[in-house]
């Protein structure tokens, strides 16, 4: 799995990983996508997965910035929101859904 | 079932409640067991769990966890409890006879992961699909029979809030069986398994309206400006309410203990036992219980606020402030509580997940100005600015700011030295906005109140008795001066002169007794240590006496200079302000007052806090470190203040 310390530029990352993958921090408000990868299986990643931020989970950006707030949509009935420090969100790669992308 | 009698010592069946945080597990637990629950710690840890007996079973409400397989303390304890290695005090450490997995009907996919982990335990299992009412209202329909088929165990839909399905749940728990299906154990496989089951059993239509309101609130509450303003408003309101509401019960408790003391004093014959009861025990218990209203209110209001879902948002606002100093948003509630009292503040540190963040928070919590400092702040700011209420207010606020800054800087120092590393970035579930659960808030408050009274109470009382004894013994001979005054009084015929002469004699005797007592002698011996800070013998006694509890300072000074601890009276305040040293100069000069103020802001003058720190931080070395560091800062700060003000004036 790919680990990226500070993935701030989506251009460089899209070469290394799947096309159209961006860090969660770059998802704009209201935009949705699917979690693709979160880096090595550290304790933090295990925790995020257990909280529901797992591969292929559908997320919608509710608040951009520090903290960023995402809603784990679809399956959750709007009941599951996760606030993330920018540092953590920057390590989560997202494949943007085509219908919400631009 | 054969496993029912697997608990020979207490002969009861153990049922463990397992589930994610924010799924209403505790509300459901309260609904099932009512008021029977007890809170106890896991041996050797600060982690606590509630348990209750119910028809020959013991229900244990385990801490909420997202997964059993994390390294977090809660996760480890859940694992150990489920394997019979540990159990909260009062429950025997046995493999539970049944597991009740509580899941959130409105968030089924994620919750299925912990069900998979529970199934893998191969213990009799019942799954409670909680908040089923809320799910129905949101248009989420769950086919419980099919879910039961997929999981291979009993599934009950219920609502801890309304009580719906709870009776059926209790009934089904009796006949819990080991799941007849297995679940995957590998992370990716669990995800796929959850998705499959979800698509089979649930049909959901998400209501976007609800999301939009939550979105707006979330954005406002975490906004760099609006969020901070809201935060300030909410906290000001919280403390305003606490201080307003607490005054009445505090006055009542004060009066009540005064009456009891007076009554005991009048009933018992004069002597050591009466003094011990009245001045030692009743005064000591009263001085502790008087803080109970604030503690109760603080925990109750915080529990309500937490129940609304706001605190999780506020934690992110404050995270920005605390992060540069090596703490995180998780430290916010503990530090906030410490402004009422460091003891509940330090106990609240249990919610800080990162061990180093938690230690840093415990270490600096006592720097926050607690309510016990207020009497000292009031006394000293009035002495410093007798004619300017505005300056008193500024100085008073300044005390809080200095305390908070000292805490932040100390955390920074700790994170650069003994607790190296950056604080853990926050990832936190933001629970839905809800009407808070009053019952849960009451229960939590009750637990905390009992804990406070039992732990801190016994200690404060013991210390009060020791201090009383040190201050009262050995009984000094009556000084010649007062004997003469009393003889004059006997000879005089004017009642005013008699009263004045006798009060003079009382005063002289009280000062003499105070100087001759063990405490007074200790004061004279130790005084040179406090010389650079500008303290004389009497102030040294005041400072030493307040080592156990800082609010003792004002009454100790009053006893020493007036011979009465009736500090309510303005006359007493002014006589403290005008008190003279043994050489006739003023006790409270400008420089000394500043020095004392600095000392009381920074010093760890609270024995119960030392004990609680040792307990919560997991070792006495942390308590000694905290005590040493705070004393060092206080001594240094007070010396600088004294020398600087002396030079300037």
Detailed description of the structure:
The complex is a heterodimer of chains A (102) and B (649). Chain A has 102 residues and is α+β, with helices and mostly antiparallel strands. Helix content of chain A is 20%, strand content 27%. In chain A, a hairpin with a 4-residue loop joins strand 3 (58-63) and strand 4. Chain A is globular. Chain B is α/β, with parallel strands linked by helices. Among the domains of chain B are: 2-206, P-loop containing nucleotide triphosphate hydrolases (Rossmann fold); 226-384 and 396-416, no CATH class. Helices cover 61% and strands 8% of the residues of chain B. Chain B contains 27 helices and ten strands. In chain B, the strands form two sheets. Chain B has a seven-stranded mixed β-sheet with strand order 2-3-4-1-5-6-8, with helices on both faces. Chain B has a two-stranded antiparallel sheet with strand order 7-9. In chain B, a hairpin with a 6-residue loop joins strand 2 and strand 3 (48-54). Chain B starts with 12 loop residues before the first strand and ends with a helix. Strand 5 of chain A pairs antiparallel with strand 10 (427-430) of chain B, so a sheet runs across the interface.
TL;DR of this structure?
The complex is a heterodimer of chains A (102) and B (649). With 102 residues, chain A is of the alpha+beta class. Chain A has helices at 10-16, 43-51, 86-89; strands spanning 21-23, 32-37, 58-63, 68-72, 81-84, 93-96.
> What is the tally of beta strands of chain A?
6
Radius of gyration of chain A: 12 Å
Bin the helical content of chain B.
55-70%
What top-tier CATH class of the domain at 2-206 in chain B fits best?
Alpha Beta
The percent of residues in helical segments of chain A reads 10-25%
Give me some keywords for this one.
heterodimer; A: 102 residues; SH3 type barrels; six-stranded antiparallel beta sheet; disordered N terminus; B: alpha/beta; Rossmann fold; two-stranded antiparallel ribbon; elongated
């Amino acid at each position: 799995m790919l680990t990226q310390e500070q993935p701030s530029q989506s251009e460089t990352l899209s070469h290394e990983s799947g096309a159209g993958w961006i860090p969660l921090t770059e998802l704009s408000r209201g935009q949705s996508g699917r979690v693709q990868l979160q880096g090595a299986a550290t304790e933090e990643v295990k925790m995020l997965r257990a909280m529901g931020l797992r591969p292929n989970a559908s997320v919608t950006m509710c608040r951009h910035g520090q903290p960023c707030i995402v809603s784990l949509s679809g399956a959750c009935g709007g009941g599951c929101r996760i606030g993330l420090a920018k540092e953590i969100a920057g390590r989560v790669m997202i494949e943007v859904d085509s219908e919400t992308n631009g | 079932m054969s496993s029912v009698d697997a608990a020979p010592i207490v002969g009861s069946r153990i049922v463990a409640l397992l589930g994610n945080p924010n799924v209403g597990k505790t509300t459901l637990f309260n609904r099932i067991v009512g008021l029977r629950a007890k809170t106890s710690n896991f041996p050797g840890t600060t982690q606590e769990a509630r348990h209750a007996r119910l028809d020959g079973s013991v229900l244990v409400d385990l801490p909420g966890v997202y997964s059993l397989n994390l390294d977090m303390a809660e996760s480890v304890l859940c694992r150990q409890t489920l394997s019979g290695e540990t159990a909260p005090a009062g429950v025997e450490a046995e493999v539970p006879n049944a597991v009740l997995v509580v899941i959130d009907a409105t968030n089924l996919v994620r919750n299925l992961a912990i069900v998979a982990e529970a199934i893998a335990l191969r213990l009799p299992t019942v799954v409670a699909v909680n908040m089923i009412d809320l799910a129905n209202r949101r248009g989420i329909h769950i086919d419980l029979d099919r879910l039961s088929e997929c999981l291979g165990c009993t599934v009950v839909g219920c609502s801890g809030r309304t009580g719906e399905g709870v009776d059926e749940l209790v009934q089904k728990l009796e006949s819990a069986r080991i799941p007849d299906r297995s679940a995957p154990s590998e992370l990716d496989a669990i995800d796929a398994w959850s998705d499959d089951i979800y698509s089979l059993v649930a049909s959901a239509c998400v209501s976007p309206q609800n999301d939009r309101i939550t979105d707006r609130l979330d954005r406002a509450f975490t906004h760099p400006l609006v969020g901070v303003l809201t935060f300030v408003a909410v906290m000001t309101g919280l403390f305003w309410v606490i201080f307003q509401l607490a005054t009445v019960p505090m006055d009542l408790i004060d009066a009540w203990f005064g009456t009891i003391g007076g009554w005991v004093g009048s009933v018992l014959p004069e002597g050591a036992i009466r003094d011990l009861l009245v001045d030692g025990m009743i005064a000591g218990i009263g001085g502790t219980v008087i803080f109970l209203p604030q503690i109760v209110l603080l925990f109750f209001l915080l529990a309500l606020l937490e129940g609304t879902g706001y605190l999780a948002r506020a934690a992110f606002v404050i995270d920005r402030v605390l992060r540069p100093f090596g703490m995180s948003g998780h430290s916010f509630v503990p530090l906030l509580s410490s402004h009422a009292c460091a003891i509940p503040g330090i106990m609240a540190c249990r919610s800080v997940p990162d061990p180093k963040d938690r230690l840093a928070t415990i270490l600096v919590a006592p720097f926050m100005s607690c309510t016990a400092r207020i009497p000292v702040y009031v006394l000293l700011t009035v002495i410093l600015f007798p004619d300017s209420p505005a300056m008193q207010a500024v100085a008073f606020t300044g005390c809080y700011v200095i305390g908070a800054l000292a805490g932040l800087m100390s955390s920074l120092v700790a994170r650069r030295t003994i607790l190296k590393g950056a604080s853990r970035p926050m990832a936190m579930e933001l629970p839905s906005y809800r009407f808070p659960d009053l019952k849960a808030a009451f229960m939590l408050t009750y637990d905390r109140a009992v804990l406070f009274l039992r732990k801190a109470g016994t200690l404060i009382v013991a210390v009060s008795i020791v201090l009383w004894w040190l201050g009262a013994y050995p009984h000094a001979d009556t000084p010649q001066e007062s004997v003469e005054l009393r003889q004059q009084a006997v000879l005089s015929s004017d009642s005013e002169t008699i009263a004045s002469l006798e009060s003079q004699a009382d005063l002289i005797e009280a000062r003499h007794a105070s100087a001759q007592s063990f405490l007074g002698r200790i004061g004279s011996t130790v005084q040179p240590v406090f010389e650079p800070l500008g303290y004389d013998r009497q102030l040294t006694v005041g400072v030493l006496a307040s080592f156990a509890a800082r609010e003792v300072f004002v009454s100790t000074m009053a006893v020493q200079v007036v011979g009465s601890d009736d500090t309510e009276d303005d006359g007493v305040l002014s006589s403290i302000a005008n008190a003279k040293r043994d050489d006739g100069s003023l006790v409270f000069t400008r420089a000394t007052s500043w020095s004392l103020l600095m000392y009381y802001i920074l010093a760890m003058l609270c024995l119960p806090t030392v004990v609680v720190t040792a307990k919560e931080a997991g070792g006495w070395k942390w308590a000694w470190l905290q005590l040493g560091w705070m004393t060092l800062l206080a001594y240094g700060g007070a010396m600088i203040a004294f020398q600087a003000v002396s030079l300037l004036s």
